[in-house]
Amino acid sequence: MRYFVTAIGTDSGKTLASAILVEALGADYWKPIQAGTPTDSDTIRNLVSPKRVIHQEQYFLKSPMSPHAAAKIDNVEIKIKHLSAPHTTKPLIIEGAGGLLVPVNDQETIADMIPHFQSEIILVSNIYLGSINHSLLSLELIKSRGYHLKGIIFNGPKNLETQQIIQNYAGVKCLLHIRNEKKITKEVVNEYAQKLKANWNELAGQR
User: Fold this and answer.
1) pTM of the predicted protein model
2) I need a labelling partner for 87 at 20 to 30 A (CA). Which of 67, 117, 159, 160 fits?
């Protein structure tokens, strides 16, 4: 099974959420397009068990900016039809770049990768003033395209009113709530992974 980790914006916590998912599900990790350093793959590698498989990016772009702009600087043409997910017998966590409508080229966006990889979405919603609007806009796009949303991961300070209205609109359960952590370590990731695994198994048992 493939799970596509996307978010309501940039710096929402996709990479941390991906590391937790990798540990919880015993999954492989893959970032199709990396723009700038340090790479998200290296971050994941430092946060998960050594036995987890981190697949190499298909495109590495030097500039830390939108993939379409970074690709133009590097004189690289990226088309989603040319992206090929690595083969694995394990679940695969695919991490996008920024939010759903971040452009990959002049015609395609990150959202177009989801059906290409036949993946389910895990949406990271970080909590801040304005995050309800950004979350609902992302969810509206997901619904309008008929994509399958596996669940939501909240990231940031607890706000029950914000979380509840987003969950109600999404129509799915919260997989995990990541608090503001002073330092992110393997131990912290493993602790959250155990919580996510329990929630994941509980939701599976409700079907």
Assistant:
1) 0.96
2) 67
